[in-house]
Design brief:
The radius of gyration is 22 Å and the shape is globular. A hairpin with a 2-residue loop joins strand 4 and strand 5. Helix 8 runs antiparallel to helix 12. The chain has a 4-stranded mixed sheet. With about 475 residues, the chain is α+β, with helices and mostly antiparallel strands. The chain is about 40% helix and about 20% strand. It has 15 helices and 16 strands.
């Protein structure tokens, strides 16, 4: 899985095309494409241009504030950060094992988050490209256009997300930036009335999830020359799996396969992730580039998220989603490496989330009131979950005064950084090289990025690494003075 670490020769002689900002993603980023005189692609890069700095300003805060603070990384996946931080800080609060009720409420919250985030991404951000075509008229290529031409699909997307948000509200207190998960457990129980409120719609949610899977797999079968080839590149895959090898979004150990599907690591303790993963910094992006230490930066990068999880696990523990997983695996006949495969696997995960929510609502523990555990004080903890976009790592150290002294976050989109760059390079060379550049062709590059469902806000933590160049230009456009910081 060698990466194409490209460096353009004589970039001053090349034409620069920029996609700025990348649209229909969370956060701010841009793509730069360098073309020669024949419109052949020489270089393509995804730049993350915003800086958040959470790893630094969390330092010095009381650790119990952190699960609420880190949610402000994002308005789409705050639950994921709340849970990952709480899991890490469980170890500092001395809760090596939280109560069954607390864990099941956390899982209910998490699976509600998976449902709403995946539905938002598919129906609001990606379905305009998939239903209308990548080159379609830009005025229709949005959720309003989908609602006009495909009202049933738009309604499904809205109601699936609404239900997921209601699950989050009931388990965390608010639809966005709730406070449900705390070190040692949760701070809110589920009442019988709240459970009944969710149960009355769950059968419809499962039916709409089945229809969502059908929609995407029909697109694959109708046009395999596009869906199975677009932006395809080979890479390894990483995700959490349960002890029995099943799909698990909330807990487990790390599993990594190579591009051929061969197992590289299995059962890897999440508390030891630093011995597995290294992060590299490059001067043209605020987002870091993780890779497997044992393989090295050149070949050791990988991808995470639904496409990795569905192919990495041995089975899914809910029956309808497992049937869909088996159909996907049979269709691919080997690892699926095309980025558009993310959409198919993402909808399988929506179905699994809906089935799991139904099962959790039927579990008597969900109505329990034993919510918090405390034990011998710790000083370090790692919390890891599978967020909608992929593996999410929160790592904290605290001192005797309960103040955070170190924070390291490796978010899902960061894991996918090199993979996204590989995807846009492949697409640019497939579709842009030798052609006159149009909006539709540039949208092909954005389609490749959107397949990963990137959260660019979450992923920007590198500090003091971005070079800066300031130029003073006269009225004729001549640079009269330049100042650079490497």
């Amino acid at each position: 899985m060698t990466s194409s670490l490209e460096t353009a020769q004589h970039p001053e002689n090349l034409r620069r095309v920029a996609i700025e900002p990348v649209s229909r993603v969370e956060g701010h980023g841009k793509v730069t494409i360098l073309l020669d005189e024949n419109n052949q692609v020489e270089q393509v890069r995804l730049h993350i241009v915003e800086f958040r700095g959470f790893e630094k300003f969390i330092e010095g805060r009381p650790y119990w504030e952190v699960p609420v603070m880190v949610q402000r990384l994002c308005g789409i996946c705050p639950v994921s950060h709340n849970l990952a931080a709480a899991k890490a800080l469980d170890l500092i609060a001395g809760a090596k094992q939280i109560t069954p009720t607390a864990e099941k409420i956390r899982r209910l919250m998490h699976y509600g988050q998976m449902l709403q985030s995946h539905a938002l991404h598919m129906y609001h951000l990606c379905s305009p490209d998939l239903l209308f075509g990548f080159d379609s008229e830009v005025g229709m290529r949005n959720i309003v256009g989908v609602a006009q031409k495909y009202p049933d699909a738009a309604k499904r997307g809205i109601l699936l997300r609404k239900f997921g948000q209601e699950v989050i509200r009931i388990t965390s207190g608010k639809r966005v930036h709730g406070t449900g998960a705390i070190p040692g457990g949760v701070n809110k129980s589920v009442t019988p009335e709240e459970r009944a409120f969710l149960k009355k719609d769950i059968d419809d949610i499962i039916a709409w999830s089945v229809e969502s899977v059908r929609m995407v797999k029909d697109l694959h079968r109708a046009n395999p020359a596009l869906y199975d080839v677009f932006g395809r590149f080979r890479s390894g895959m990483m995700s959490l799996t349960a002890p029995d090898g099943g799909l698990d979004f909330y807990d487990g150990s790390l599993r990594v396969r190579d591009a051929d599907g061969k197992m590289l690591f299995d059962g890897y303790d999440v508390q030891q992730y630093e011995s597995l993963i290294q992060e590299e910094v490059k001067p043209w992006s605020y987002m870091k580039f993780p890779y497997l230490k044992s393989i090295g930066a050149q070949d050791g990068w990988y991808r995470v998220g639904p496409l990795s999880r569905i192919q990495n696990c041995d089975f899914i523990g809910t029956p309808l989603a497992e049937l869909e997983r088996q159909e996907f695996i049979a269709y691919t006949e080997g690892p699926m490496h095309a980025p558009l495969g993310y959409h198919w696997t993402r909808m399988i995960e929506v179905l699994h989330a809906a089935e799991t929510i139904r099962d959790l609502l039927d579990d008597p523990d969900i109505l329990g009131h034993d919510l918090v555990v405390k034990g011998p004080r710790g000083y370090e903890g790692v919390g890891m979950i599978e967020a909608p976009r992929g593996t999410l790592i929160h790592h904290y150290e605290v001192d005797d005064n309960d103040l955070v002294t170190m924070c390291n976050l490796i978010v899902s989109t960061t894991h996918n950084n090199q993979a996204m760059n590989e995807a846009i390079r492949t697409v640019a060379r497939q579709y842009l090289s030798g052609n006159e550049i149009t909006e539709g062709l540039l949208n092909h590059v954005e389609v490749a990025i959107r397949a990963f469902d990137p959260c660019l806000s979450c992923a920007t933590h590198a500090l003091g690494k971005m070079p800066l160049t300031a130029e003073l230009v006269d009225v004729q456009g001549k640079v009269v003075h330049s100042l650079s910081r490497d």
